[in-house]
Amino acid sequence: MAGFRSLARQVRDPRCDLALRRYSLRKCLERFAPYGHRATWDHLCSRAGFGPEDRSPDPARLVAALDELEEARSVWLAYEDAFAERRRKEKHDGLRRPGSVDDWHRLTWGGCGVAWCDNPRVHPHEPLAEVLRRLIAALEREPGSVCPVCSGDRLTWKYDLAHEPSSGPVCTDCGIVVPRPVLTPEALAGSRRGRLLVSV
C-alpha cells in the first residue's frame, strides 16, 4: 500500500495520467483527512476550484489542493511529535494516567477526523493548516466556551455521528465536532441543552 508521500509524488508527476493523479490525491485522504474523507475532499475541491465529481480537473488545481493538504499534514505531524515527546516525559516522571486531551488524541492518531465534519458539505472555509493551528492552540490552553476554529458560540450536541466519539458538541457555524477537552463543563452542558436528536 502506497504511503502519503509516494501518492503525493504521483499527484505532482506530469508523466502520470490525469485520472491517476486525481485518484492519488483521493488516496492521500485515506492517510490524512482532518475533516473526514468526504468533507476534506469537498473542502480541497472548493478551495482549489474544481468540482468533487470533476474527472479531469486542471492538473495545477490538483497540485494546489495537494499543497494545502501537505501544509496541514506538516502542522499535524509536528503536533503529534510534540505530543509523543510530552507523553514520554510524563511517563518518565511517573504520570501514567492520560488526561482528556490524551483520550481525544488517541481517536485522531494520524490526523484522520481531527476536526471531524459529520456533514461533508459543512466545513470551515479557512485553509486546513490554519484550522489545525487554531485547534492545536485550543488544546494547549485552558478550555473555553466557543468553537476553537471559528469562535462560533452555537454549539449543539449531536448523536449518531459517523466517527468516534459517536456523540459530541457540533459547531453549527463551521460544522466541526468540537473536541470535548477544549470546552468548559458549562459550554458542554449548554450544547447538550440545545442538542439535535437526529442526524443532519
Automatic annotation (TrEMBL):
Official protein name in the record: Uncharacterized protein
Species of the source: Streptomyces xiangluensis
